[in-house]
Amino acid sequence: MKSIIDYAFQSRRFWWFNASSRTKARFRRTVLGSFWLGLSTVLSTICLAVVYSTIFNVDDRINFALYIGFGLCFWNTLSTSLSSSPTLFEVNRDCLHNTNLPIVFYLLQEWAFTIQSFIQTFAITFACGLILSPTIITSLPSLILPLFLFLVTLFWLPALICIGGARFQDLYQLIPVAMTLLFLLSPLLYYEDSLGSLHWVADFNPIYQTISVARDSLIGANISLYRYLLLSSFNVAGLLLLNSTYNKLKSNLKFMA
Description:
By secondary structure, the protein is mostly helical. It has helices spanning 2-10, 12-26, 35-55, 61-84, 88-91, 93-98, 103-132, 144-167, 171-185, 200-203, 206-218, 225-249, 253-256.
């Protein structure tokens, strides 16, 4: 893990610049540019908040809209990253075969691209949230630790799936299905209390907990120490697993693409 961190720091300008170029090229011929990232989340939030607040007879519709909006903001970032990760090496096959860049460079570049997309989405979502509830700005300090844990997960989990996808191509089909099931099982469009006796489905879902801790810290909910310990343990275990897997397979990964 130390070698990965050292390389990431030494080459930070290179992989961050490459990711920035991809971000600019993504919306090159659009009028609104990267504004579309946040706009799509905001529009989805408005529609879903109206529908689900009616279905579940929610009294505080503003808080419910914030609950859905920030939940979707974090979920869309993570699910998009995980869904695209199995094909990362395939997309970069020519570069892998014709350059001497280490495998970790492509993992870092993809991570930076995801972070940049998340920043743009979160900024617009948060700005709209301020219109609905100006007091959420006081919750920003409490977001620091949950956001750090979210960004760490955003690196090692897609990277691990990417390495696994290079070896087992079944992941190309499995991950999108798994993300759909996780979305349906995760209380993102409804409150956790609605699960009733199935509350454990959310409690023991580390993917959902990664999102919910960040979301709940923004809307003023109390976060228990247990949830922080669970997420920290989840990330430590994931980083160790990634380090072990990467060291074992890094010499062969280019030939698997």
